[in-house]
């Protein structure tokens, strides 16, 4: 469970998120978001258990829960729940893939240009160069091969994270520490969007529970894993911010000074993200490909699959070219999609499934969480888009 969170790049952006709010507000707000996301995971698990028993299903996925919740509430075969979950899962995962393009390219750029004197190319050139490698990897769709990629990626990401952790722990900057207490409160929408993005692993929850020999142990394991993730986030966030202050970049790996430490960290992260791109790409393809193959019958199944994969890899590539600012891209995906998957849909499903038996307090709690998620979604999305537009003006 913990590895499922750690193998992603989100942790590297937490110091930047802390720099937005400062040391006083950042950690409590991060704990708040983490606690709400954990609570919503429990709501989703409870809904899955009840619906699986009611409809005699051996196991349910995220989309299954939403689909059956809507059917249970409205009393018909309405598939709006599945369509909603599929749409936001596709949006989230393809957003991750676009962010991966930027992360690979920028880490490679830092390694090359820090070690080759006088050499400089625009970031977009590096993004174009890695398109070929990602395109080739996207044609690997065997899940066992992807699992091997994930295992290798975990080794490299831990190498990169440990390298960064050692550096920030050994190089704190306590001079004028009071200047780090309060950040830019006006940028709170960016903070909340990035924080929700960091915890948006809710799509993994039900598959992980379904694979356990003793599913009854899963809530305890989930709680421990979430608190471990929170502790690591706080470590990276606070020490990273104290180390680099307001010079912190969208990924803390970009702040490491020129030398062997930064080269090891940046190479490890770039290689990890390259290997795990296809894991992020796997989920939207599992949703999109059956529909495409059923709709385009004049071509063979392999032709449709290759064409579809090529189209969506190029789409994520074009998005990364359009918005080559990693912290703004993370904030946009976190606000627009992750907030819905993590904070809006689970309590909505819970209210639908337990409509006749839910207590007034639990109902109010669910609606408050949904309102909080909706505010992050709307305000965070608008704020992120405005920030992105300003980079082109």
Essential attributes:
mainly alpha
Could you tell me the number of beta strands?
0
Mean pLDDT: 85
Distance between the termini: 43 Å
Largest pleated sheet: none
Helix-strand sequence: HHHHHHHHHHHHHH
Oligomeric status of the shown chains? single chain
Helix content: over 70%
Instruction: Name the poorly predicted regions.
Output: none
Main structural class: mainly alpha
- Percentage of β-strand residues: under 5%
* Annotation field: number of helices: 14
Overall geometry: globular
Q: What is the C-alpha radius of gyration, as a whole number of Å?
A: 21 Å
Q: How do you describe this structure in short?
A:
76% of the residues lie in helices and 0% in strands.
Describe this structure in words.
With 393 residues, the chain is an all-alpha fold. The protein has helices at residues 2-6, 14-21, 26-54, 62-74, 80-115, 123-138, 143-170, 188-199, 205-211, 218-244, 260-295, 301-322, 326-353, 360-392. Helix 8 packs across helix 13. The longest helix is centred in the N-terminal third of the chain and has 36 residues, at 80-115.
